[in-house]
Amino acid sequence: MIKLLKNFRKDEDGAVTVDWVVLTAAVVALAGAAYTAIETGSQTLTTNTGTFITAQSPTAEAEE
User: Fold this and answer.
1) In b/e form, how buried is each residue of 34-62, taking b as 16+ CB within 10 angstroms?
2) 16 CA to centre of own chain
3) How far, in Å, CA of 12 to CA of 7, rounded?
4) Backbone angles phi, psi at 11, to 5 degrees
5) CA atoms of 50 and 54, how far apart (whole Å)
6) Could you read off the pLDDT of 11-63 as tens digits, one per residue?
7) pLDDT per residue over 8-20, tens digit each?
8) Helix (H) or strand (E) holding 26
């Protein structure tokens, strides 16, 4: 039993897997944060653009 525990402690295959899982989770979290920031910014820009265009009135100069 002690030999099994010593071999388990020395085996690094599981540690590498845990490292990859943690790194992948971090990348997914950063992608989610970036998506949220871009989505919020684009919604604000769309709203502001719509408000600006609605406030414009056509002029006679534009028809020339």
Assistant:
1) eeeeeeeeeeeeeeeeeeeeeeeeeeeee
2) 25
3) 10
4) -70, 125
5) 6
6) 767 777 888 999 999 999 999 999 999 998 999 999 999 999 999 887 756 55
7) 777 767 777 888 9
8) helix 13-55
